[in-house]
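hey m, so remember when u said the tokens were messed up on ur end? i reran from scratch. heres the input so u can diff it against urs
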Amino acid sequence: LMVSDGALCVDNGAGNTCATSARTRGGVYAETGALTGLDVAEQYRTMDTGLEAGDLLSADPENPKFVKKYDISAGATTSPTILGVVSTAPGLLLGGFSDDAPSVLKVPVALTGRVPVKVNLDGGEVAIGDRIGASFAAGVGARATTSGQTLGIALEAYDETSTTTSIMVFVDRHYYFAPNDLFVDSATGNIGIGGFDGLTAS
């Protein structure tokens, strides 16, 4: 279905209907909506032609507003921030229209929901509920064992008997405090050891 220079409206026939309400050209209006896809994603530009669904991403420091495959450089003293993951099949894709030329490469980056994420055993076996951070392999996640940025929460287990290279992860980007690491609460200045419930350190 294509509506040129108009709006698309779907109503339930009650109250404020499509026939009685003002609509803006280029808009889509509905009473409710249901999508079979599992995540909301946004299109991001990239220069990385090797990106695949399930790859972890970071911002590209050499190209503003671009993303690239997450990679920890050998000998680096700091690691890049995990920006997100390449979505496999977004339920809702933002940024589908733009003024970019067709030759500009873009990838759908998952913002929320659940998505397949590539993982390995760098952090040991993954259990349901574990936080997933970055591994030492470019673009691949692993069970978080040290304090740092994480992508989300594992919804599936992964071990040496797993026959796939990815698991379903709920996107929930947070800084994870490992149980044996010291941290400073920025609100109180108190120093503690480990523990993180996704909202506050304790």
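this time it looks ok to me. The CA atoms of residues 34 and 91 lie 9 Å apart. if urs says something different then somethings off w ur setup not the seq
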